[in-house]
Write a structure and sequence with these properties.
- The protein is α+β, with helices and mostly antiparallel strands.
- The chain is about 25% helix and about 40% strand.
- The protein has four helices and nine strands, in the order E-H-E-E-H-E-E-H-E-H-E-E-E.
- Strands 2-6-5-4-7 form a five-stranded antiparallel sheet.
- The protein is globular.
């Protein structure tokens, strides 16, 4: 029986300045007193497509499809924070994408068509460009959290380059997920 690999496709956050801004906002989130599980700063990324469990023999087949995605490196402006499903009933706190959202959506759409050729079902959630920065564990201090999110709706984190699409492995551990890159596709500009 083959080992399965929990995996996803993503763009990593490779700017120290953006990571510092994300960490700063996470500390402010904690100060609201809301019951949160923060995403480790080094684990924050832009998920293009969650793949779930794949077998090792799928890695190169997925990589072959990744290499056919057409995009040039593009700017991604990370701006604003909010929550899914909304700020009054938050389950996930996110940082938003201003510039670059259309290019990210295009990469997702191209991948959906190509991954279906490998027998992977379409993503039932579709695609919303964002970075998950925290998960809400309970309703504690929900009002303070909602006020904070409304106040920071246009917060500017900075910009990164969307230049390398990566196939990532997610190993779940008691201390949280550990991500590693299995393959990357970096088209030249």
């Amino acid at each position: 029986m083959s080992e399965s690999i929990r995996s996803f496709l993503a763009f990593d956050i490779e700017s120290d300045q953006v990571k510092e801004e994300l960490a700063r906002v996470q500390m402010l989130l904690v100060q609201t007193g809301a019951d949160l599980k923060l995403v480790e700063t080094e684990n924050i990324h832009i998920t293009i497509r969650f793949l779930g469990n794949i077998t090792p023999n799928m890695i190169d087949r997925i990589y072959d499809k990744m290499k056919t995605v057409q995009f040039n490196p593009f700017n991604i402006q990370i701006k604003g924070i909010g929550a899914f499903p909304n700020i009054n009933y938050p389950r996930v706190v996110w940082a938003g994408i201003a510039e670059g959202a259309n290019q990210l959506r295009d990469v997702f759409s191209q991948l959906e068509a190509k991954l279906s050729q490998l027998g992977l079902p379409p993503d039932p959630k579709g695609f919303t460009a964002h970075l998950t920065i925290a998960r809400v564990k309970s309703g504690r201090n929900k009002m303070q959290l909602a006020e904070f999110l409304a106040d920071k709706a246009n917060y500017e984190f900075g910009s990164i380059k969307g230049d390398c699409l990566r196939l990532k492995q997610s190993d779940l551990t008691p201390k949280g997920p550990v991500y590693s890159t299995l393959r990357e596709f970096c088209p030249s500009s």
